[in-house]
Amino acid sequence: MLETNPVSTTNSGDYYKAALGLKNEDYYLKCFKRFDGKGIGATWNWPSFFVTFYWLLYRKMWLAALVFFLLPVSLAIIEVILMPVSEVAANIVTIGYLVAVFIVVPMYANAFYYRHVSAKISKVKKQTNDEATRLRMLAEDGGTSGIILFIILAFVVVSILGMLASIAIPSYHDYITRAKIHSGIAVAEKYRSNVEVYVVQNGSLPSTIDDIGGLEQSYYENLRSVSLLDDGIIKITFAGDLVVDGKSLFYVPSLEAEGDVVWQCRSVDIDPGLLPVHCRE
Known about the structure:
The chain is α+β, with helices and mostly antiparallel strands. It has helices spanning about 10-20, 25-40, 45-50, 50-60, 60-85, 85-125, 130-140, 145-200, 210, and strands at about 225-230, 235-240, 250-255, 260-265. The chain has a four-stranded antiparallel beta sheet, with helices on one face. The longest helix has about 55 residues, at about 145-200.
């Protein structure tokens, strides 16, 4: 068990109260009096287990909070260096960090806070001999940080907005992409009608785009090209969208014995989830 010099004053409880503030005062006073009598040892602090970083900020342990915040970054760099040399060593670093954060820190958080408060008390004692001034200085410098509540609230709000954005933005982009695909399908529908008219008039499938006539330029928005392949296959190639740019949709006709044209819609490079049901293979 580690030992430390307790705050040597008959009014140590008043100093502790001034430095602690009203939040959970009784809990920390109980721990501190135990440390005064028996020395620093292991206890358990639930806030430091669940929200270590915010607990440090809330209790105004700024430097410790900064170190705790930067520690994962430092360990990540160490792991990157160790991984090519020894994967086992890198894993040991990770396991050691997790053990420290979720076991060692909560076990000794109260002891660490005790040292922090004791250091503040020792500091004000050196600065002035007036007890009232000491208590006032401890109350001003100690206690809890109200701003951390706003930081936590802001963090929660930003996290929620981030989660909503992570859902909404891809969904919106998929919606835009589907709309562009449907505009291409609308063009294909026009050409399908022209093909069917050609079949009625000629009894066979057209061989070139000129056989069925073109469409107004307004129909070609979001499209790179519209072409008629062998056997009357209509090929729609998209443009202007990172997901479907350069990718194609095909309408494949087959001429029935009765003279009817049956169409199949398919694509070999567009995500089926973006296509209408009738175009999914």
